[in-house]
Amino acid sequence: MNSAACSNCSHCLLVELGELITLLPESVVNRYPRAGVVYRDVVDAPPATMVIAWPQTSRSSATAALARAASAE
Length: 73
What we know:
Helices cover 41% and strands 0% of the residues. It is an all-alpha fold.
């Protein structure tokens, strides 16, 4: 499991335990459902901007292609 997934799981566990109230990406609702957590949309929140991040030393052609595709208008 990657560190972002672990962070989301940790946040959800802390919410379930009553230790935290937090804002999470909408994708967490489907990916990390927890019976003891209630999720509600924040209807007046601005849309989130997504970015791609990769190691500066990467020479992956797949990563370069993804970055080009994501940056294209």
